[in-house]
## 1
Amino acid sequence: MTLDRTVAGPPATDLPAVPAPRSRRATPAQWASQSLTMAWRSLVQIKHNPSELLDLSIQPIMFVLLFTFVFGGAIGGSTDAYLQFSLGGLIAQNALFLTVYTATGLATDLQKGTFDRFRSLPIARSAPLSGRIMGDVVRQLWSLVVLLAVGVALGFRITTSPLAVLAAFGLLVAFTVAFSWTSVLLGVLARDPEKVQIYGFTVLFPLTFASNAFAPTQTMPDWLQAWVSINPVTRLADALRGLLVGGPVAANAVATLLWGVAFAAVFGPLAVWALRTRV
């Protein structure tokens, strides 16, 4: 006789229920808190790498000195006149150049597997990205203060009100945050931090130098003026000039904000999608 050793398992209904995975959809308040935590993480890294703060200070000083004393006399007639014209453009250029830090930091985190660890946390998927941008906003403000301080020391004079200066800070931060999603996408797509510098400045050099940041539009060829007049860097530089030394502001500020909305609307979702695909 053969014994049947098969032991019948418990009915399916008796199996313990498996808890559903925790949702990562965060409320706006949770998203803001998580993003601020990630921003603090980004800023704390400066404590362990003080040379980064030195780099944020030296770059704006170098640009102001070089453009004022090398090109000032040839373009503006005098260094003082050129400084009054160019500082708004230098602020815009420096702000966009600093967004490369966002891309480099993201590429480094991805290469080290940091975002793989973030996936195990119950946080919004966009929190690490938005937190990185928020941290870089603080870097932007530091660099802007250094730029203005050096400009004033060299003879730049703010001829508007303190409220207008605050508006210039706000406009610059708003546009930079929106534009930073372009750098976020670049940082996610780049396979290593070294390539970020190459790709980033390949985009930023034509965007910043093919503008009126450093030379008046009317001095350029007609075919180039068509692009320069609508270039977002031109609109931002003109708005900053108007807010700091006087001139038209409203149309340039509105155009700058519209460009910012376009950058965020296009590159923000693409950056989040690219991150989900990569990790």
Note: The mean pLDDT is 84.
## 2
Amino acid sequence: MKALLLKRLLQLITVVWGVGTLTFVLMRSLPGDMAYRIAASRYGQDNVNSDAAALVREELGLNQHPLEAYWHWLTDLLQFNLGNSMVSGLPVIESVQHMLGHSMLLAFAGLMVSILIAIPLGLLSAWRGNPLDSVLMGLSSAIRAMPVFVIGVLFVLLFALHLGWFPVAGYGTFAHLVLPAVTLALSLAAVSNRVVRDSAKQTFRAAFYQFSKVKGLSTWQTFQRHGVRNIAVPVVAFFGIQLVSMIEGIVMIESLFSWPGIGHGLAHAIFARDIPVIQGAALAMGVVFVLLNTLVDLLCLWIDPRGVEQ
């Protein structure tokens, strides 16, 4: 347990430094005048000229040498200071906390809905076999082949514009959460239900599972005592791997549905060349990814304590 936590701590430090450094280098490497883009975001595209860009460049220190700017960023990071937004002037930590809260709400809702879809369908597919298995697997493959934003657009066209059941985009009510959460859930469930199905099939065919029926246990007792934990370990481990798809999906879904989360804020910050916000958002997603993977590892050890010895 201590080795696992120490390993994750080292991974967290590496991710924070690596993501921050890579973001810094990439944003500084983009073509165009950064000061002009920031001035356009502040004052409007029609009100920007070379004098306004020069003032922004001087105010924000954009004429510093890249190594000097990187050193200042690194020393601020060691003091847990993410700086202020170049556009709004607000502390980055406050903006990231606000956006991260909305993203966590969307991610949690999408994950819960995907679990409600994937686990029953995966177990049913493993238990019933063909032809239901083939139909569900074909449907899963078709959904997985579509990018998540395509699923979102189809939902908007059908449920928002055609039927008028839900708002097209925005935030504020439960109805605004439904379409983005279901879009994210379907993209996740299209893969995770196959993992549930494969894990369940392997467990149902195992000798220990068949022997428990010979002992006289009912189907439900056999599943409860010998099936749940053995099926759960690879499924929970896969959810840790699927966090990458979840983060990727959240960025696109938030932009599509104008959800005020960290992906939506990151997209706007990139267009505005707001480097502190970009770095803060990227760091937040990296930290959340490591923490959630640690939680998944601990959950797997709780389900199967034999993993501690491995």
Note: Residues 1-92 form one domain.
## 3
Amino acid sequence: MNTALSSIIIASVQVVLFVFLAPLLMGLIRQVRATIEGRAGAGIWQPWRDVRKLLAKNPVRAEGSSWMLRAGPVALMVSSLLLCVLLPLVGTIPFPSIPSDLFVIVSVMLIGVVALALVGLDGGTAFGGMGSSRHMTVAALVEPTLLLSVYALSIPAGTSTISAIVETRLLSPEVIISPVSVLALVALSIAIMAETARLPIDNPGTHLELTMLHEAMTLEASGRDLAWLEVGSWLKLAALLGLVSNLVVPWGIVTDFSALGLLIGVVTIAVKVLVLGVLLSVGEIFLAKVRLFQVPELLAGSFALAFLAVTASYLVA
């Protein structure tokens, strides 16, 4: 089978899998936390029920709002779907014309970041504007860390194509436990927690407007608009957890296309993402949201780790 057809099949499988997996991941995270805290919880399928309910409702938009309130949620959803297409989640066979390059991935993520911020601003509320301002401040600190941390991982591979980075780590397992890799993965994990509005940067379960980041921007959204915003955010979290899992444990990913290999890749990435979701949920129980003025310090620390990883990679080489 030629490379183009193989990449299309793998990309289609990744999109379908993660559209199903993302709400399940959120339900699992919430259920694990509820169980540990001694609550019954709503069950792991509750996010699916919420999405189905929201999709059946027409959105109510503020008077005077622009087209951005309608286009923003769709833009976030599309950018998250593109992440699922481009990232090496089930397989590492890239599109010939659209490589899974580091700079392409970060640019696609930035589309969703800006779209979400504009949605918060377009509602015209004080909380929406405040949330968008904080969101863009965090994004300005996160994007350089994402670039540097993955760049540090790309030096052994000799390319910034993420699928080639994963293949290199699969063929040379000693790279995974190197100090450079550990520093870069820690920095990348902190940046992903900030990018997806998780603790300790933001508390996704809060209802106190003054402490909200992500939730403040979605206060004015309802119906289908809110469904696209929620699913888009869940997809981004699931895709980025899948990327981290493949960088840490690359075994099971498809490098040569076959039906059996594709099945193994689907099962493997699903297990990896759900296990990381459980670990994330358990870890968040022991974390508290840091004060807003301490967020830049935390993100500056992650940037320093990424910078050290890049420096050390050249020294080791």
Note: The chain has eleven helices and no strands.
